[in-house]
Design a protein that fits this description.
It is built from nine helices and four strands; from the N terminus they run H-H-H-H-H-H-H-H-E-E-H-E-E. With 218 residues, it is α+β, with helices and mostly antiparallel strands. Strands 1-2-3-4 form a four-stranded mixed β-sheet. The protein is globular and about 50 Å long. The N and C termini lie far apart (39 Å).
Length: 218
């Protein structure tokens, strides 16, 4: 089984769609196919760039695609419930235990409230997930009623996650329109996530840098 087969699986797509529907009801930003696909591709990019095996890259993409499936159960502890769901799905699909273990561990550790980069797959998933900040994730069309998360995501007009050629540094570079959200707003919401990204980068032998409007902040 590979990433494309996971993406095309109707059962998985149903769970992702319904999980996002619950988050729509709660007023959260987009966590549907756009988010999980971008996270999958970024996790794959990180692992591939750092020279991990083709299969490890594939597992990183699968973990990225499945990482938010636990929102189907509840937003609270969604990483743990998502890990349990992923275990059952992957086991039924015939994945070997050693691959299931890596994917489940990564999913169960991707949330900044309880997670840690306990292995390289988890580290790549954390960096891929926490770097997805963008205007198109905001579903609220009434700017006047934006909450803090809406303002911060809407303010980010461009986000790039890149590893340097020497493979010593991973940089999250954001372009922020300060008419909608300030740099301090970003830190108020995402400081814990950025600190987790720094730990994740270290697990992969990298230094993490955050650039906002061409200024280095971490």
């Amino acid at each position: 089984m590979n990433y494309e087969q996971i993406r095309e699986n109707k059962v998985i797509r149903t769970y992702i769609a319904q999980a996002d529907a619950s988050l729509i009801a709660l007023g959260f930003t987009e966590h549907s196919f756009g988010h999980v696909t971008l996270v999958a591709e970024k996790a794959g990019y990180i692992l591939q760039t750092l020279g991990y095996s083709e299969r490890m890259v594939e597992l990183g993409k699968i973990a990225g695609y499945l990482h938010d499936i636990g929102n189907l159960v509840n937003r609270v502890d969604h990483s743990q419930s998502g890990a349990v769901m992923a275990f059952r799905l992957l086991d039924e699909m015939g994945f070997p235990p050693e691959e299931i273990a890596l994917i489940v561990t990564a999913i169960g550790n991707h949330d900044e409230g309880t997670g840690q980069p306990v292995n390289e797959l988890a580290a790549a998933l954390i960096l891929a997930d926490k770097s997805d900040v963008r205007r198109s994730r905001v579903r609220n069309q009434d700017i006047a009623s934006f909450d803090m998360h809406d303002r911060v995501n809407y303010s980010v007009t461009k986000a790039e996650l890149k590893i340097n050629e020497a493979h010593t540094l991973i940089k999250l570079k954001l372009t922020v329109d300060t008419h909608f959200g300030s740099v301090m707003d970003y830190f108020e919401i995402f400081m814990q996530r950025m600190l987790l990204c720094r730990k994740a980068a270290e697990k992969l032998g990298l230094q993490f840098k955050l650039m906002i409007n061409e200024q280095q902040l971490i």
